[in-house]
UniProtKB/TrEMBL annotation:
Ranges of biased composition (kind: Low complexity): 894-904
Biased composition (Basic and acidic residues): 320-329
Identification of the protein by name: Nidogen 2
Domain Thyroglobulin type-1: 764-830, 839-905, 915-983
Native organism taxonomy: Eukaryota, Metazoa, Chordata, Craniata, Vertebrata
InterPro entries: 6-blade_b-propeller_TolB-like (IPR011042), Dev_reg/Prot_inhib (IPR051950), EGF (IPR000742), EGF-like_Ca-bd_dom (IPR001881), EGF-type_Asp/Asn_hydroxyl_site (IPR000152), EGF_Ca-bd_CS (IPR018097), G2_nidogen/fibulin_G2F (IPR006605), GFP (IPR009017)
Compositional bias ranges of the Polar residues kind: 296-309, 341-354
Domain Nidogen G2 beta-barrel: 420-646
Positions of region (Disordered): 261-356, 894-916, 971-1022
GO CC terms, sorted: basement membrane; extracellular space
Residue ranges occupied by any EGF-like domain in the UniProt entry: 647-688, 689-725
Length: 1312
């Protein structure tokens, strides 16, 4: 308390930050361990004297890492987490997560656990300042303290560089007791001299990733997408505020509640702390140095929220701790030879060999684990040899007990190492009745694999004969025993092995409902064998429900209540499981009673009840290996509420009044309800069958058969399928089953050749069966008895007797749409039903109309005499019309509104053919443009045969060019607006009637022979795609519309020894250009197969070339060099290189060009004054465009269609846009991670991210994240660009300083 008072007095004097004495005492003088110096070191797992509760889970060990983190498990390599954003894939407490390094005597990292009074007083004072109400009664019993003192950032040193003098000091404190945990982060004044570290992969790219401060659960199956975390700071501004702000009212002190909940709760949300006495109670601690004098304090405080309060106001408040009496605590030996807190009696000792013996007479003693004792009074002197080699013996009034030593757990007679993986071997025998079959088995193998650190248990039983093996799937309690034995312990709770050890007997009885089958299981543990393998014998006897081959069993998470006595553990309950087969499933239940007996210690006072929580449970049968497997993940904790055991439910003792097939569902206390299984309806205390066939659940071409509690569907003659889906075609000659079954327990399966009872509906044809059970025919009302021919087939013409309506049917008896006639009119002419089986797609669509969005109801298409789709289709009820192709697919852009003139539609192709590449591309773009492309959007032109027309033009831009048959532009043929190039039609292929279209320019004919492809080059397909730089390779990521087609992503180009940063694309010559900071070069390569990379700017005059932009109109490129602080330009072949700017630049990074208007834009990553500048492409009219509210503008892109300049800021985490003159600035997204480069395409942005190591998609309109791609190979992604199948159009805008005419002529541009 004195220490804290002194700290706060200093805070009052300083007023803005925590002085160094505000840290909790640390260092060698306090017995701290010191982490080994290095770049990526971690401590051994420090076994805690008592388990702490973290994120709602028990933790027994803590690890400290160099990189500013604490974890409950050992760390992976730093490359797997140090540069990543939260969440991490392992549990983390992070006071300053960054790439730190203590090599070369650059600082120390100390850690220890402590239960001294001065440390706990100072910690609880900070905690109660942040949680004045909820933590008012919190009394910690232990603390874990980790201190990073004067540590440096990782730095690549060379002969020309000196180690940085910026060093950081900070501390993390975990204060806890058996019930709760709080974490304190402390940042003293001047303690954070650097706020981030450079990634090791950044090479000479001037990039720094801010540290991360916060917490991560690390328990998600997909941690990069679903993991839970709490972030306090991850930007430079937030990190700067750590020293000045607070959530406790004490600058630099941050407190969090992390124990009894699965969510981190920051302090500061409960208002001002309560006043404390003028003279807080003192606790003498003569062993504490450095705090010899008490300091009186004031009694009030005004506290302000942490965020937005740059100068918290303290009015003399000294956080206090409530005085508490000393409590008795069991003397527990430590690994360091010390002891814990004081205890009430002085034990006498007895030693023999390696067994330590203590005497404790406290009748309220509740040790961590109990031990067995003999029936009569026995002492350790006589029987200590009964204890495990890893235990010590203690004498009590009632006898002796064994207790496992630190780092081990068990009942003392058997002890296992904590956190280790355990194995269990056993034999299983039994006699089972499964359905009508009796199955016996003797000594088949059982193996279990236990991961004690997180409570997982895996069980495998091999060799059980069928059908018993599959029928044992619901017997999860067989493997559930091991889940209870080795469950993860919550604070104050003990798993089964800590109570019974390896010698016990479990008796288990299960009764299944609604069938009433009963099975009994006896499992006997016979001690530990060699290598600590637990030996177990299992016997199973009784009756279990039959399960067919094609089913799976699903078990939902559950909780189970265990009641304890001195020599027995009991549990009972009712569980449910789901048996599934395809789309059918049935919920089945069983009643469970289990009793575990063991030899206990009379001195041990067992817990009244404990709750076992099973978070995951799986049961499966591997038919290939013939192995039955169970898997469970469990934890054990105190029973909620602490009430006494409730009365036995009538569902469990059989006194309920439910009538079969209803099942009894337990309620509160002795209450219960009678529930019906699927396929039944409640009927008093019983159930009656539901006729599912009345709801027509089957396919229209199938017949439904109702059975008790179930139903089945069977396809009509001429159709094949399972009854829920029926398609045209031959029925298999020997189907496995003629019907699909639903529900349990009836499990009615009809097999070919199965003897049928007299009158079995299977002997009737579908038509005859329907005559027996007529169905309604909407809207005629009463049932229609169909007319059948002599063979029992449906007659083609059907008429409804009472109404006079007639219609045609197909072979399945289904009405053919459009054939119904009114009463009194001539019936339709119907063909033979067999002919209907060979319908055209149009005719089939008439029978089964589909919805036409957004018109709603089904559209019955119009077919011609040959059954083909008519080119013009109109929707009867709405009046919309549209054109279709030969496949009946609507042609985009042809739909007309009701009341307007229908579109003029040509005839579809007389024969069906798949759409060509041109047609697919055209249709994809039309859908992307919403059916109505703008004048500045390109849509490919296709001829009637589906080929690209030789002449292609870009919207209303006036630009036209010639293409090859593949649609690829022929270099040199692009013309300016007002002129049209003469293009030659390709040689006729499959369309001999195609007309000739002029002559192709002979000077630009493609070569007839191409070079062989390089093995490390994979040419892309046509269409729009993204290219991204990832270290030594360039990746290819195609787009499907605007969605990332992740499955087709691949490496486009491997560049060993390079570090590719900037990347851009020349749409005229289909070439990619990139900068290489490792080789200090700028290179290019074509997208054609066989293209070789070509260096066009060598290392001379380059240090760190980063951003790159290509001007496809002027045939020029521009780049930034953050090493030389320059912006340069050159021709695309590397000639005519010149410096545009080399002044007033600090860290130029990204660069973008607007070829049409001739403007250049770039970002300067100057930490003191970041900015975005612009000029003409010739270097004229330089000016600052954006300079306020930006931090680290890494990425920059100019959208040629929206004419917006947009940037991604790694400092502010913002994605923003503005007009080229700096006006109209607007925020798109405010929560980016750490963007590096960005590109715009259609209605999306795509940026690379260094926290995610992937490509992220952001919608331009909503700002929402819509997609992401994370390459399998994990490393940082740099530049990104989009490759269009065309060039954005436009004319070159003339500037006061014109481009030389020779450049324009070389680019094919007019010079007048």
């Amino acid at each position: 308390m004195r220490a804290l008072a002194a700290v706060l007095a200093a805070v009052l004097a300083v007023g803005t930050a925590l002085p160094r004495p505000g840290l909790l005492p640390h260092g060698p003088a306090r017995g701290d361990a010191r982490l080994r110096p290095g770049d990526d070191e971690s401590s051994p797992g420090l076994l805690l004297r008592r388990a702490l509760r973290l994120y709602g889970r028990a933790a027994r060990r803590l690890y400290v890492g160099t990189n500013g983190v604490i974890s409950t498990q050992d760390f992976p390599r730093e490359t797997q987490y140090v540069d990543d954003d939260f969440p991490t894939d392992f549990p983390v407490i992070a006071p300053f997560l960054a790439d730190l390094d203590t090599s070369g005597d650059r600082g120390n990292i100390y850690y220890r656990q402590d239960d001294s009074r001065d440390v706990l007083d100072q910690a609880v004072g900070y905690i109660q300042a942040g949680f004045p109400r909820s933590a008012g009664a919190f009394v910690p019993t232990n603390a874990f303290i980790a201190t990073w003192e004067e540590v440096g950032a990782y730095q690549e040193l060379s002969q020309d560089t000196e180690p940085s003098t910026k060093l950081n000091t900070f501390q993390a404190v975990i204060a806890y007791n058996d019930e709760d945990t709080y974490t304190i982060f402390l940042y003293p004044d001047g303690g954070l001299q650097f706020l981030g570290t450079r990634p090791k992969e950044s090479y000479n790219v001037q990039l720094e990733l801010p540290a991360r401060v916060g917490f991560s659960w690390g328990d998600s199956d997909d941690p990069k997408r679903d993991g839970l975390f709490h972030s306090l700071a991850s930007s430079e501004q937030a990190l700067r505020n750590l020293e000045r702000e607070s959530n406790t009212g004490i600058p630099g002190v941050w407190v969090f509640h992390v124990g009894s909940t699965e969510h981190v709760e920051p302090g500061g949300g409960e208002g001002a702390a309560p006043a404390v006495p003028q003279s807080p109670p003192e606790h003498p601690n003569p062993g504490t140095a450095g705090h010899p004098h008490p300091l009186s304090s004031h009694t009030s405080m005004a506290q302000h929220p942490s965020r937005g309060s740059h100068s918290p106001v303290l009015l003399g408040f000294v956080p206090g701790r409530r005085d508490t009496q000393e409590r008795s605590r069991w003397l527990q030996p430590r690994g360091d030879g010390g002891t814990g807190q004081s205890f009430s009696a002085n034990p006498s000792s007895y030693s023999s060999g390696q067994h330590g013996v203590g005497v404790e007479e406290d009748v309220h003693f509740n040790p961590d684990v109990f031990t067995y004792s003999a029936a009569s009074k026995e002492t350790c002197a006589q029987h200590h040899g009964r204890c495990s080699p890893h235990a010590f013996c203690t004498d009590y009034a009632a006898g002796f007990c064994c207790h496992c030593r630190a780092t081990f757990y068990g009942n003392g007679r058997q002890c296992l190492p904590e956190g280790a993986v355990h194995r269990l071997n056993g034999k299983v025998s039994g006699s089972l009745r499964v359905g009508r079959a009796s199955v016996g088995f003797q000594d088949v193998d059982l193996h279990a694999y236990i991961v004690g650190s997180d409570g997982r248990a895996y069980t495998a039983i091999s060799g059980v004969p069928q059908p018993a093996a599959r029928a044992l799937l619901p017997l999860l309690p067989v493997g559930g025993l091991f889940a209870w034995l080795f469950a993860l312990e919550e604070p104050g709770s003990e798993n089964g092995f800590s109570i019974t050890g390896a010698e016990f007997t479990q008796s288990l009885k299960m009764t299944f409902y609604p069938g009433g089958e009963t099975v009994q299981v006896t499992q006997t543990a016979e001690g530990l064998g060699p290598d600590n393998y637990l030996n177990l014998r299992t016997h199973i006897q009784g009756e279990v429900p039959f399960l067919p081959e094609n089913v799976t069993v699903h078990i939902t998470p559950y909780e189970e209540l265990y009641s304890y006595s001195s020599s027995a553990v009991t549990s009972s309950g009712q569980r449910e499981y789901v048996v599934a087969a395809g789309t059918a499933n049935q919920t089945v239940s069983y009643r469970l009673r289990q009793n575990i007996t063991f030899s206990g210690c009379p001195h041990w006072r067992p817990p009244a009840r404990q709750r076992l929580s099973v978070a995951r449970a799986f049961a499966l049968f591997d038919s290939h290996e013939h192995v039955l497997r169970y898997a469970l993940a469990a934890r054990i904790g105190p029973a909620r509420g602490g009430a006494e055991n409730p009365g036995v439910s009538p569902c469990h003792d059989g006194s309920h009044t439910c009538e079969a097939p209803a099942r009894c569902q337990p309620g509160v206390g002795t209450e219960y309800t009678c529930q019906c299984a699927a396929g039944y309806r409640p009927d008093g205390r019983g159930c009656r069958d539901v006729d599912e066939c009345a709801e027509s659940p089957c396919h229209p071409a199938a017949v439904c058969y109702n059975t008790p509690g179930s139903f089945s569907c069977r396809c009509r003659p001429g159709y094949a399928g399972d009854g829920f889906q029926c398609t045209y075609g031959e029925v298999p000659a020997q189907p496995r089953a003629l019907c699909a079954w639903h529900s349990f327990p009836s499990l009615t399966l009809l097999f070919p050749g199965f003897p049928a009872a007299e009158g079995n509906p299977q002997r009737l044809t579908p038509c005859q069966h329907e005559r027996m059970y007529p169905r309604e025919v909407p809207p005629l009302g009463d049932g229609h008895a169909p007319q059948c021919d002599e063979q029992g087939r449906y007659r083609p013409l059907q008429c409804h007797g009472s109404s006079g309506h007639c219609w045609c049917v197909d072979a399945a008896g289904q009405e053919i749409a459009g054939t119904r006639t009114a009463p009194g009119t001539t019936p339709p002419r119907c063909g033979s039903p067999e002919s209907i089986q060979h319908l055209t797609p149009c005719e089939h669509a008439r029978m089964y109309p589909r919805e036409v969005p957004p018109l709603g109801d089904g559209h019955v298409p119009q077919c011609d005499e040959q059954g083909r789709y008519r080119p013009l289709q109109c929707h009867g009820s709405s009046g919309h019309c549209w054109c279709v192709d030969a496949a009946g697919q609507e042609i985009a852009g042809t739909r007309t509104a009701p009341g307007t003139t229908p579109p003029r539609c040509g005839s579809p192709e007389p024969t069906e053919r798949p759409p060509s590449m041109c047609e697919r591309w055209r249709q994809s773009l039309l859908e992307h443009y919403g059916g109505s492309p703008r004048g500045d959007q390109y849509v490919p032109q296709c001829d009637p045969g589906g080929d690209f027309t030789p002449l292609q033009c870009h919207g209303d831009s006036g630009y036209c060019w010639c293409v090859e048959q593949s649609g690829r532009e022929i270099p040199g043929t692009r013309s300016e607006p007002g002129t049209t190039p003469p293009c030659k039609s390709p040689a006729p292929q499959s369309h001999p009637g195609q007309r000739q279209r002029g002559q192709r320019l002979p000077s630009v004919a493609p070569p007839s022979v191409r070079p062989e492809p390089r093995p490390d080059v994979s040419p892309p397909a046509t269409g729009t795609f993204l290219l991204y730089a990832q270290g030594q390779q360039i990746g290819y990521l195609p787009l499907n519309g605007t969605r990332l087609h992740k499955e087709a992503a691949k490496t486009l180009l491997s560049l060993h020894g390079s570090i590719v940063v900037g990347i851009d694309y020349d749409c005229r010559e289909r070439m990619i250009y990139w900068t290489d900071v490792a080789g200090r070069t700028i290179s290019r390569a074509g997208l054609e197969a066989g293209s070789e990379p070509e260096t066009i700017i060598s290392s001379a005059g380059l240090i760190s070339p980063e951003g790159l932009a290509v001007d496809h109109l002027r045939r020029a490129m521009f780049w930034t060099d953050s090493g030389l602080d320059r912006i340069e330009r050159a021709r695309l072949d590397g000639s005519e290189r010149r410096v545009l700017f080399d002044t007033e630049l600090v860290n130029p990074r990204a660069i973008a060009v607007d070829p049409v208007r001739g403007n250049l834009y770039w970002t300067d990553w100057n930490r003191e004054a970041p900015k975005i500048e612009t000029s003409t492409v010739n270097g004229a009219n330089r000016r600052v465009l954006v300079h306020s509210d930006i931090g680290l503008p890494n990425g920059l892109t100019f959208d040629p269609f929206s004419k917006l300049l947009c940037w991604a800021d790694a400092g502010t985490k913002h994605l923003e846009c503005t007009f080229p003159d700096g006006t109209g600035r607007r925020l798109i997204q405010s929560n980016l991670n750490y963007p590096f480069s960005i590109i715009s395409y259609a209605n999306h942005f795509y940026h690379t991210d260094w926290r995610r190591d992937g490509v992220i998609a952001v919608n331009k309109e909503t700002g929402s994240f819509t997609d992401e791609y994370l390459p399998e190979q994990r490393s940082h992604l740099y530049g990104i660009t989009a490759v269009y199948p065309y060039c954005p159009g436009g004319k070159i805008k003339t500037h006061p300083n014109p481009i030389p005419s020779r450049v324009l002529m070389a680019a094919g541009c007019p010079t007048h």
